[in-house]
Each structure stands twice: as structure tokens, then as C-alpha cells.
UniProtKB/TrEMBL annotation:
PANTHER family: PROTEIN DIPZ (PTHR42852:SF13), THIOL:DISULFIDE INTERCHANGE PROTEIN DSBE (PTHR42852)
Protein name: TlpA family protein disulfide reductase
Domain Thioredoxin: 32-175
CDD domains: TlpA_like_family
Cross-referenced SUPFAM superfamilies: Thioredoxin-like
A Pfam family the protein falls into: AhpC-TSA
């Protein structure tokens, strides 16, 4: 299932609009639920349709499945051959209508060039701004099953589109499906736009001294982290980090709500010496180690007041919840150091084909080429720190782009430096003083 979650987004302000009672070009758009009759709205732009536009009711008279997708949803694309086979098998008995917010040119290019969907032709709504308001969704795939009379029978993901269910659907019988819950349909809940403390929050927020919430992983929330001023007059701030790994929560806590900086290296940022419930060897892919944190509190009006308030309350909350005592100290850590060599600036010129940009730093394998093409130095350092076993420190500078090709040989620094020198770069292993967060038993 393709989700909008991204686990390490640091600062992201989300703006959501209510789907109830909106109008688009004169059309009343009200969220449609299971059991409702669909409105006869205009679909102004269709692909693979003789008229190029249609009313939604034009597709009734036989059971209809609307399948929502977008170009970045690999799970959606993987369903298409299966949906195509269903459409052919039940030709004349079933209508499958695809819908995407992507533009015509991008959709046409995708179906022409992708080997996975070549030869498949669906009637589909493109540049959609209507159906997504009627049937909002935060998680894809997203399918709406509508009977021949226009009544919504199911809103679910792609797992219910089995032949057994399709046949029952065509015959007007009940079929088995797992309905999407409200949290998967409502952007206000899915993005945690409202605080966990919902009751009359707006009317009483100026009275808040401190409120915090910590829970285990909640799948209805997207993985976002924000810090914002809720009330500048009364000096009230809010910091939230939904579905973040516990290491990231501590990183936020000691950073005053600021997350991954370019030289942040989570694998060496922490020393874990505890017998508490926290694992000694954290697993970034284990959702049991992810938590939701929400803080509303007062802050000092000084320049660093917001960061100090977040650190003060958040460290205390996390330590109490995980039954540990944390602190930050300086440690010597072995680091990769990338720096300039001589006066040459060849690294500022394109390499390879000289087209676009590229960075395969997620493939740091011994003996494999690391190809960097027109990549911002600052972004490269952050990417390398995410994938390397030891920290990367950038001494090239944070401005401009960088290009080079080098064979990754972590056990032969001299050989790597020899390759890099033709670009005006070199690499070294050095012990450097780093800020480390230590977690110990209370």
C-alpha cells in the first residue's frame, strides 16, 4: 500500500482544506460516503474517451469502480495489469474508471514508455480536481465501488478487487471488503492538523501552560514534524513529530525541534547503555520503535526561547516515558572528511553525460562507483550521512554543486583520494569531536 508517509521530514507546514461543501466551477462538492448516491458532476478532462469530457452519471448503468492513482504510487501502478485483465474479462458488465491529478502529457508519456503498462488503455480522469473532493483519500491505492444505480457500495484499497468480489458486485450481491476508516479519508486527521487535545482547543489555547502527548506508532498519521508559534501574544508554541523513530525524537529534543542537519549521523549520534524497553541496537525499519509526540507549551520571547522550551519539556517527557536519563556530551568519532585538494575546481564542472543531476549514494558498496552529478554539496553530505556507517563531514563548503566519480573503497582511502584529486578533491579518515546523546538507565 502506497502511503504519503515520509519518516524523516524535518520542518514541514501542512495546509489542509475541508472537503465539505466546496465548490469547483459552480459544482457543489460534498464528501460521498458508503451508502450515498453519487452526484452527477462534470468530469472536464478525460483520456481515452470519445468525447474528452463527460458527466459522472454517464458511466452508470453497469457497476463502476473508480481507481485513484498518481505517478509516484508504485502500488497503484502494480494493480493496473490486474485491473486491465478484469476489465477485459468482464467487458460490457463492468466499468473501470481511473482518476489521477497528474497532467495529460505526463500520464500519456508514462503509459507510452513504461514497460509495465504498455498496451494498457483505461478511460481515465486526468487533472482531477473533482473526484478527489468527492472521495478524499490520504492513502493509495484508493477504490470506490459504485453500483449500476449510482450507490456507493465500498471504499477500499486495491486488495478487494478479486474475481470473486467482482462477480458478486456485478450480480448485485454483498461482497467482502475491508473499508477504509475515517482516518484514511480525512486529511485533518491523517496529517494531525489538530492537536491530540481536541476539545474546545481554539477557545482555550491561550490558557495552556504545557500539554504533551506521546503514543506508539499510529498509522492514520503521516510522518511529519513541525514547530510553529500558535499564539505570539501569549507566547505559546507547538511542536509535533508524528511517527518518528525514537532516535529522531531525541535528536529533535536536543536540537530544539530542529531535525536532521547535513552533518547529522544517527548511527553515531547515540550511545545507548540501558536495560529499559529501548533497544540497544535500534532498527530504523521497525515501526514498533516509532512514536507520535505532540507538545504545546509557553516559551520565552528571547531569540532562542522556542528551542529552549522544546528541549526542556521534550527531553523530560521522553526520559520519563522510556525510563532513561539522557544527556549530551562531546566524543571523538572517526569520520569521513571530504575536502578540496589544491587549487583545481574541476568538481564544479559536470561529469558523465553532463545532464541533470544524480547521486547514487544509497549504494555505498565496496568496489562500486559512487557517481555524483550536479548535486548540491550540502544535500550530498546529508545523503551520505544517511547511508554511511560513519559520519561524513563536508569541508568543501555548502555553496554550489559538486560532480565526481570515485570507486568506493572504504579500506583504501589513498586509492579513493587518488581518484578524487583529478576533480580537486580528496577524502580522509579523521577523529573529530562530535556531539553525542547518551541514554542510560535512570
Amino acid at each position: 500500500m502506497k502511503s504519503s508517509k515520509r519518516l524523516y521530514i524535518t520542518i514541514l507546514i501542512l495546509v489542509c482544506s475541508c472537503t465539505i461543501g466546496q465548490k469547483l466551477k459552480g459544482q457543489e462538492l460534498t464528501t460521498v460516503r458508503i451508502g450515498d448516491r453519487i452526484p452527477n458532476v462534470l468530469l472536464p478532462e478525460l483520456l481515452n474517451h470519445p468525447k474528452g469530457s463527460a458527466q459522472l452519471h454517464d458511466f452508470l448503468g453497469k457497476p463502476l469502480i473508480i481507481d485513484f492513482w498518481f505517478l509516484g504510487c508504485s502500488s497503484c501502478v502494480k494493480l493496473m495489469p490486474h485491473l486491465d485483465s478484469l476489465q477485459k474479462e468482464y467487458h460490457g458488465k463492468l466499468q473501470i474508471l481511473l482518476s489521477t491529478h497528474d497532467e495529460r502529457e505526463k500520464v500519456e508519456n508514462f503509459f507510452n514508455r513504461s514497460r509495465y503498462v504498455q498496451g494498457i488503455k483505461f478511460t481515465q480522469v486526468i487533472n482531477d480536481a473533482v473526484l478527489k473532493k468527492l472521495f478524499p483519500a490520504m492513502i493509495m491505492p484508493h477504490q470506490v465501488w459504485i453500483d449500476k444505480n449510482g450507490i456507493v457500495k465500498a471504499i477500499t484499497d486495491g486488495n478487494s478487487a478479486t474475481r470473486e468480489n467482482i462477480e458478486k458486485f456485478i450480480e448485485g450481491k454483498d461482497f467482502d471488503f475491508v473499508p477504509k476508516i475515517d482516518e484514511e479519508l480525512d486529511p485533518f486527521v491523517a496529517n494531525a492538523v489538530q492537536p491530540a487535545m481536541l476539545y474546545n482547543y481554539i477557545g482555550n489555547k491561550e490558557k495552556i501552560l504545557k500539554y504533551s502527548y506521546l503514543s506508539e506508532f499510529r498509522p492514520e498519521f503521516s510522518g511529519t514534524s513541525t514547530r510553529s508559534i500558535e499564539d505570539p501574544v501569549n507566547h505559546i508554541l507547538r511542536f509535533k513529530s508524528m511517527n518518528s523513530h525514537f532516535l529522531m525524537l531525541y535528536n529533535f529534543a536536543y536540537g530544539g525541534g530542529l531535525g536532521i542537519l547535513e552533518d547529522t549521523h544517527l548511527k553515531t549520534r547515540f550511545i545507548i547503555e540501558t536495560n529499559s524497553t529501548l533497544p540497544r541496537v535500534p532498527e530504523l525499519n521497525n515501526y514498533n520503535q516509532y512514536y507520535c509526540y505532540d507538545l504545546i507549551c509557553r516559551y520565552d520571547g528571547a531569540e532562542d526561547g522556542i528551542s529552549k522550551a522544546i528541549s526542556k519539556y521534550m527531553i523530560d517527557d521522553l526520559d520519563k516515558a522510556f525510563n532513561v536519563k539522557s544527556h549530551e556530551e562531546k566524543k571523538l568519532v572517526k569520520c569521513w572528511v571530504l575536502k578540496e585538494y589544491g587549487d583545481s575546481k574541476v568538481y564544479q564542472e559536470p561529469v558523465g553525460e553532463g545532464m541533470g543531476f544524480k547521486a547514487n549514494a544509497e549504494e555505498l558498496e565496496p568496489g562500486k562507483q559512487l557517481i555524483i552529478e550536479n548535486f548540491f554539496v550540502r544535500n550530498l553530505t546529508q545523503l551520505l550521512n544517511y547511508n554511511s556507517e560513519i559520519p561524513f563531514v563536508n569541508k568543501v563548503g555548502n555553496k554550489g554543486k559538486i560532480s565526481f566519480i570515485v570507486t568506493w573503497k572504504p579500506n583504501n582511502v589513498k586509492a579513493m583520494s587518488a581518484e578524487l584529486r583529478k576533480y580537486g578533491l580528496e577524502i580522509a579518515l579523521e577523529d573529530m569531536e562530535r556531539d553525542v546523546i547518551v541514554l542510560r538507565d535512570r
